[in-house]
Structure formats: structure tokens, C-alpha cells
Give the backbone structure.
Amino acid sequence: MPPESGLGYKLNAAVSGAIGALMFILPSVTGPVAGLGGPGLGHHDATAVRPPAAARAVLNTGLFATACTAPGSCAAGGDFGAARRPLEPMVATQSHGRWSRAIPLLLPPNAAAQPYAVVNGIACRNAGNCVAVGNYDYGRSSNLQAFIATESHGTWARAFTPRLPANASSPASAQLQAVTCTRGGYCEAVGSYQDSAGNAQTMTLAKAPTGPWRQAAEVASPPGAAANPDALMTGIACTSPGSCVAVGNYSLSASRFAAMGAIESRGTWRQAVQIALPRGAIPSTFTAITSVTCPGPAAGPCTGVGEYAVSATRSRAMTVTESKGRFGRAVAITAVPPGASPVSSTYLLGVSCAPAGTCLAVGGGRNLAGRSVAMYMTRSGGHWRAAFLLPPRGATAGRRQGSALYSVSCTGRAHCTAVGYYRDHLGAPHAQAASTP
């Protein structure tokens, strides 16, 4: 897998349980970019988010998901690892623009002594009432199992495992990658599971404003998928209960993946479809639409972002729109940040758009030193512009540099918060967040 695949890192970390064993290098950045149209992360350095208090020193942390309910009011989730301790899921809260120290989430009882767990997605109906989803290892074979954790009035309950589709394998293997909730309390989550034939299939599950989470159901892979589609949905957005869009990727062969999207209408998911790539794309294992955002039922089309390969060592960010139940062809985003490598390489992992059409997307790009760098892109008036993010104080400027942004959430037209990680002088990753001024 090429070194720029942010999606590859996130998924590889979920499998390997080693946040420090990155598949790519994400160095820090130099210089802010001013004058971007629409929302941008501005001139301010990112902020380090403190890990949970622990008896032993925390060695590494990262944030992979965030959700905001108002400017300066957000929740975020990821993982942390303390000395001689397994990697555990954590959540942090931003209130009045300041981030609290993160706290660990309690996993289901069978995960207490397992080596890896992470929050992949988070959504909030309002401040203090959120849902986090992710996965953890369990059992002697270290299978992945999905979890859901709920926050009520500022208190997180112990996570629980969702009911998997009826044809799920035994022992179970599943993960949840993204979740979305309406202000009314309706929620949906997406991910993948292993069926009884040992194939990885996508799944979705929903929760009404009252009552428990429903049993998960399979979303059929696009026509032409490999016998084992190795399919995974990584993004979801809903305009109303039972009316949602999900995105991800699936396998056409052992060495070729394709981007896909699926539509839910009136509570029923249609078979997923392949999303056509920009011209010039080459076969790759890391092609994906990773995230999607929908501004509202009457506010324009949904927007997805991701990456595709232009060579064996270069990726390029792309975007796609969904309107009235149909996905268009993905379009290459050719914008690169000032200070980017002449042999540019970019990817996007998260996106959030306002009804006015302005968007902020986050991911990474290659800098002049030939390394990948935490980056954000803004869209205004139909045009994308890119900038590198200034890292927090304490980030290394040496050969162990590394940073990335994984998720972004915007409220209103101009206030957005993004989360990810950066590396210190020892090369250890630490959680970071950045907000618009």
C-alpha cells in the first residue's frame, strides 16, 4: 500500500493494534495559508488534547472522529496506549473552546484484557448526549468486535456489542466505522462484518429516538465485486430518519479496490453502487470515498471525499456528489498546499459542508521534504484550495515528524473543528485538534 494512504493507516491500525506502527509518515507543516474562501483552520496552531490520567505514562494517543453541536462545543474519540497497557478507546470534550482531558471508555466485559480498541466514529444530538462507535479485539484469536457507547447528560455508559446480521460468522467479527444522529435522537451507524462464509460485508444499523439499537443488516456490495468483497463503509450522513447516504470501498480483486456508495430511502437500503473514478486513475488497493456530508433535504447535494491512485506511490484527493439518489462520477481535486512537493500527493479522510455550499475537508499531503503532511482543503464557489496545518507546540521538526487530520465537524457557515494526531521528538503520536478562529 502506498505511503500516503490515510485510510490504509486507519484500517491497518484497527487490525494490527499498533498506532505507532504507521504505514505512512505524516510530517509537520510550515506556514499558514491566509485568504481561503469559506471555512478554514486559519493561522492558529493545532492544540494538543491531553490523554486520560493514568498511573503509567501514556505513550501514544490519537483522535479519529469528532462531532460539534455549536461553535466551541464538540466531542471527539480515538484511542490511547499507556506503558504496559493495551490500547484503549477514549473520548474528549470541548466546551467554550477548551478541550478537557480525555477519559477512557469502558468496553464490554469480554474485552477487558484485550490488546486493541478504538473509537472510529462519534455523533451528538446535543452537548453531553453523544454516541461513539468503534471496535476492539477479543478472544484467543483476537477477532474484531464492534461496540457502541452512549453518553447521557455528560456521562458515558459502558459500551455494548450490537446485534449483527443473521448470517454473521461465529465467532463474530465486525467493526463500526461511522455514526450519525439527528437532533431528534435518530441514529445510524455503518461498518462491516464477516458472514458465515468468511466474507467481509458491509452493514448498517439504526436506533429510533426511543428504544434500543436494531439488529444490523447487510448492505449488498455492488455488482462485479470479488467473491469476498472485503467491503467496508466508512462514512454516513442522513438528511432525515431513514434517508441516508453511506460511502466506502470494496474489492474487485486481490490488488484492486473500488469506491462505492449506497442510498437509504424510506428506511430501506439499496444495493451499493460503484462510484466512477476520475480519468487517469490506476488500479489500487486504497481507492475509497472515505467520508460524506449532507447539508439537508433541501440544501443541495451530498458531498463525499476520498482518494485514488495516480501512480504506485502517489494518491490524489477526489470528491463526489450524490443527488436524488444517484452518485456522479468522482472528480479529482488538483489543489495542493503552498509548500507542497512538486510530485504532489494528497488524500482526504473527513468532510463537513454548510448549507451555503462551503466545505472543509481534512487529510494529508506531501511536502517539499517528500513526506506526507496534515492538510485541510476548503471549497467555496465550487473551487477547492488547500493548506497545511501548523502543528501543536512540542511537535518534532526532525525526521520523525508526523501528523494527520482524520475528521472534521462544522456548525453554521464558518466554525469548524478537526482532529487527528502529531508526533513528538521521540516519534510517539499524540492527539491534536484545530478549530477555525
Residues 1-38 have pLDDT under 50 and may be disordered. The domain at 6-435 is CATH 2.120.10.10 (Neuraminidase).
